[in-house]
Amino acid sequence: MEILGHYLCPRKTRKDLEIELQYSYRHLRMQEFDASKYVCKIISKGSNAEIKRIMNEIQEEWHSNIRNHTIALLTERFPERLTKYGCRIVDFENAILNNKDDFDKLNVDNFLRMVFESHYNKAVVNMVTTKMAKMREWEVHSPSGLSALMVVLQQTKPKGLTLQFIDQTSVSTSLTGYLANITKYHLTFRLMLPKTPLDENPSSSPTAAVHDAFLSAATLPGDNTTLKWFSGFLSRTGIQQLPPSLTYLRVGLSSEDLQRLFLRILRIKELKYLVISMRCSNIENVVNLGKLQTTLDLTNIGIALYGAEETDLPHIATLVQRCFTGAPLHLWLHEANITGDGAAQLLQLLCNHNVKCKEIKI
Q: Which class for 215: exposed (0-12), middle (13-18), buried (19 or more C-beta within 10 A)?
C-alpha cells in the first residue's frame, strides 16, 4: 500500500506560505483515463443536457490526453457514437490549432495520437485527414506518431513535412523504415534529429552511425522527396551522403572531418545556413584547412566549439578565419575554460584576421 500510495496519491508541499498538492505521473495518467471513462459513460447513457455539458467541458477545460483517451474508448466500447462525438473532439483540436499564429505550419502530434488511440479506425482517420488536409505544412515531434502518419499520408499529404525530435531515447532504428516510406511521396521535408552531448569524437560515435542511417533513408537515390533541412551528427560516410537540395545544415562532427565537410558543401549550391559543432581537441590539426568558397552565398554561418582552453585560442582564430566567407558569422564557445583576458585575446586575434563576427558567446 505504501508503494501504491507513493505512485497514486498526491503529496503536499509548501511553496512560500501556501500548501500545494503534487501528483505523480502515474496519478495524472490514471485521472485522465478515469475522466475519459466518465465522459464515455455520459455519452452512452446520459441525457441530452448532460451530454452537451460534458462535451463543452472536454473541449474547453480538459487536457488533450483526456480527449485522446475518449476517442480510444468510444472506438472500443461505443462505436455507434464515435462518428458524432468523436468528430466534435477532432473539431475542437482543430479549433485550438486555428487559434495559433501560424496555421500553415503546425504540430500535428495530437491528431496522429487520435488515429493511434483509435487503432486506426477508418472513421477517425477520415475525420483527422479532413482537418489535416487544410494545413500546408505539418510538424511531427513525437516518433510514436509516425505509424499513424503513414496511414494519414495514404489519404492526404502536406506540401512540407518537418520531423523534429527532441528526445534521443524515443528515437529508435525503426525511424529508418518510416523515412524510407516518406520518400515515396512528393514531399519537401526537414529532418531535425535530437541534440545529444557532444562526444570526444562525434564522427565515430554510435549516435553518428544511427544518424547516418537516417540520412541515408531520407535521401534514397531517385526518390521524389527533397530534404531541405538536416540537423544531426555525421560520420565520414554520412557527410558524403548530404544531398544537394539542402538549404539548412546543422552538423556535429570531429575536427578531422571538417575538410571533408567543406568539400561536400561545395556541391550544395542552395545551402544558406550552416552550423558546425565540434570539440576543440586536436583543433590544431585543422590549421591547413582550405577556405570555403564565397560563391556559396551563405546567409549565416555558425561555429559551436566545445571544451576550449586558452591555448586553443590561436587555432580557433585561424579556424574561424578560414571558415569565414563574408556571411554573418556566429561563434559559440561551450564548456570553455577561458578567462576574461583570454576572451579579449580572442577578440584581438579575430580582428587581426579581419573576421567580423555577428555574435560571440562564451
A: buried
The Cα 331–Cα 278 span in angstroms is: 12
At position 17, the amino acid (one-letter code) is L
d(CA 86, CA 125): 11
- In the chain, the N- to C-terminal Cα span, in Å, equals 51
State the helix-helix crossing angle for 109-117 and 64-77, rounded to 10 degrees: 30
**How far apart (Å, rounded) are the C-alpha atoms in residues 337 and 21?**
42
pTM listed for this prediction: 0.77
Which residue in the block uniquely carries the three cell numbers 571544451? 307
How many other C-beta atoms lie within 10 A of the C-beta of residue 269? Answer: 12
32-45 per-position pLDDT tens digit: 667 767 776 776 67
C-alpha cell at 7: 505512485
Please give the grid coordinates belonging to residue 256: 578531422
Q: What is the pLDDT of residues 320-337, one digit of tens each?
A: 877 766 777 888 888 888
